[in-house]
């Protein structure tokens, strides 16, 4: 496995101000504006899921893995504006050049980051350069689908065939991991309204952890991790999560779901 590795996920809400500007709806209240944008989107697309540029980022979570071990982190709107969160996240790529790992990051997370960084006038050449600055990035960058600098697990596990795309929650649970547990993406706007920042970070970090565990299994499948190395990394993840108070629910749920498959059933010692 090439290091460092950065597994990431974002959570978003509709940018009402940008939506009002785009559709000339400045005279509506916030609630009416949200309903109007949802109706317009249903007419355009058949669902409430907004266009990529109208997704305002409210949380970015990541798991960093290098020679020093694992570190889980989150940036959210409790302490940072969207621009500040983006600046912190993008600065990682200026300092290091990690292997980026996501679930559906090519179609959603990275395009959202691209548009929102442009919205705030930010520069991120280390993430978006495709060889114009660093000629080596012509052959391996974060955008091109068949390169390995960004591993979008949903895409690669579907063998780059959209008909085979699967949900993160389904694959996580299939493989003996916790999946979404009690959270769901539709709760994010309410968490933001209630300023439930800890719950929001826990949810986003949960997606990151599921993605990390699937990535380890993917590396095992491809022969880029030996069985003993895979087990050591799983054990290291369990030991690390035991030190993270905000992820005790994830760890407890994982202990239960691990019993559902023969391969994962011995990840945790059997309780007498």
Question: What does the model show?
Answer:
The model has no long low-confidence stretch (mean pLDDT 94). With 272 residues, the protein is of the alpha/beta class. The two termini are 36 Å apart. Helices cover 46% and strands 14% of the residues. It is built from eleven helices and five strands. The chain has one domain: Ribonuclease H-like superfamily/Ribonuclease H (Nucleotidyltransferase, domain 5), CATH 3.30.420. The chain has a five-stranded mixed beta sheet, with helices on both faces. A hairpin with a 2-residue loop joins β2 and β3 (69-76). It holds the Pfam family DNA_pol_B_exo2.
Query: What is the CATH fold-level name?
Result: Nucleotidyltransferase, domain 5
CATH architecture: 2-Layer Sandwich
- CATH homology-level superfamily: Ribonuclease H-like superfamily/Ribonuclease H
What share of residues is helical? Answer: 40-55%
How does the major sheet shape up? 5 strands, mixed
Which class best fits the helix and strand makeup? alpha/beta
Name the CATH class. Alpha Beta
Q: Could you tell me the number of beta strands? A: 5
Backbone CA Rg: 19 Å
| Low-pLDDT regions | none
Could you tell me the mean pLDDT?
A: 94
The domain count comes to: 1
- How is the quaternary structure best described? single chain
What percent of residues are in strands?
5-15%
**In sequence order, what are the helices and strands, one letter per element?**
EHHEEHEHHEHHHHHH
Pfam family, one: DNA_pol_B_exo2
GO molecular function: nucleic acid binding
Domain Predicted 3'-5' exonuclease PolB-like: 47-255
């Amino acid at each position: 496995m090439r290091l460092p590795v950065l597994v990431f996920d974002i959570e978003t809400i509709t940018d009402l101000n940008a939506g009002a500007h785009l559709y000339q709806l400045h005279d509506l209240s916030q609630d009416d504006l949200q309903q109007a944008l949802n109706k317009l989107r249903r007419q355009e697309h058949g669902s409430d899921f907004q266009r990529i540029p109208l997704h305002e980022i409210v949380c970015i979570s990541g798991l960093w893995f290098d020679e020093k071990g694992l570190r889980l982190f989150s940036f959210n709107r409790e302490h940072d504006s969207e621009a500040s969160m983006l600046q912190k996240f993008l600065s990682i790529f200026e300092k290091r050049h990690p292997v980026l790992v996501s679930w559906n990051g090519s179609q959603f997370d990275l395009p959202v980051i691209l548009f929102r960084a442009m919205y705030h006038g930010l520069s991120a050449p280390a993430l978006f350069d495709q060889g114009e600055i660093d000629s080596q990035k012509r052959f391996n960058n974060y955008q091109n689908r068949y390169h390995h600098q960004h591993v979008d697990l949903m895409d690669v596990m579907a063998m780059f065939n959209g008909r085979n795309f699967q949900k993160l929650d389904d694959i996580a649970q299939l493989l003996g991991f916790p999946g979404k547990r009690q959270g769901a993406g539709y709760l994010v706007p309410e968490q933001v309204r209630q300023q439930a920042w800890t719950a929001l970070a826990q949810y986003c970090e949960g997606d990151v952890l599921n993605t990390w565990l699937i990535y380890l299994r993917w590396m095992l499948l491809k022969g880029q991790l030996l069985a003993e190395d895979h087990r050591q990394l799983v054990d290291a993840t369990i030991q690390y999560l035991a030190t993270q108070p905000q992820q005790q629910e994830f760890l407890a749920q994982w202990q239960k779901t691990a019993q559902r498959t023969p391969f994962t059933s011995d990840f945790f010692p059997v309780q007498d």
